[in-house]
Permease
Amino acid sequence: MTVKAARRAWLTDLPVLLVAVVWGSSYLAAKEVTTAQTVLAVLVLRFGVVLPVLVGTGWRKLRALDGAQLRGAGVLGLILSGIFLLETYGVVHTSATNAGLIISLTMIFTPLAESRITGRRPSRSFLAAAGLSVLGVLLLTQGAGFTAPSLGDLLMLGAAVARTVHVLAMSRMRSVQGADSLSMTTVQLGGAVAVFAVLSTLPGTGSTTWAAAAELDTGDWLWLLYLSVFCTLFAFFVQMWAVRRTSPSRVSLLLGTEPVWAAVVGVTLAGDRPGWLGLLGALLVLAGTAWGRSAAAPRRTSVVEPAEPDGADTGLEPAGRS
């Protein structure tokens, strides 16, 4: 890889890594502001707070989206709503340790699903790097021990699968390629708000949006704004931007450092003490991510080949190659 290409890769990777940081902190934020009875209400508020700003800022480009792009963004919005429903209910019904461990399986599901779709298999180096990261996550969460899967654990597993589907859909749906990222994000979030708002009106789904909003204090609103602006708007805008410039596997591997940042937030803000195993696990996850970035980098050959659309790098090798 040339110096220019390496610099470009880092400029793409760093915002994705920052997304992992804010997502790692989102477990604490969600636990602070959400209960089992207010999940849907909080999700409506979390997404609804940023929508007016998005619509006002990007109205001209939003109107320029054609029917196919709107339908594609709508599909992505449905997937996005599923991710947040599964994650939020999951976090409420399981521990942050289990949530961080299970959701990190996205970095395994993504390259496996990508290889299934493309007919190519991940390189041995990429698989080894992913394995090292998973081992790090296991060590990171070993201190809390393991229990039989709970409802929350199963919901987090579903969220990991949904995250994989979302990343792959963004990179492969032709209808959304070339569309303005901000407009696409706006439609996705609008679709998710609609799903949450409809579900919140059904009997037995918990507090209404207005009732939950009236019970939030200043601290709750600060957590909610953090979830809205950083963990929602910023995170998914960067993810959509980055997946067009690199591979879904590479994005997923960087986002796989999320449990490390969740541990950092837990130690600094919640007083958690991971111990030596946890520290070793954090280092292994970071090492695995760095190795995976290198393994996912495109190989240079003497033959000039056509570039992938939007400069994308698949991070995969054809079947039969080592």
Summary: Residues 114 and 168 are 7 Å apart (CA to CA).
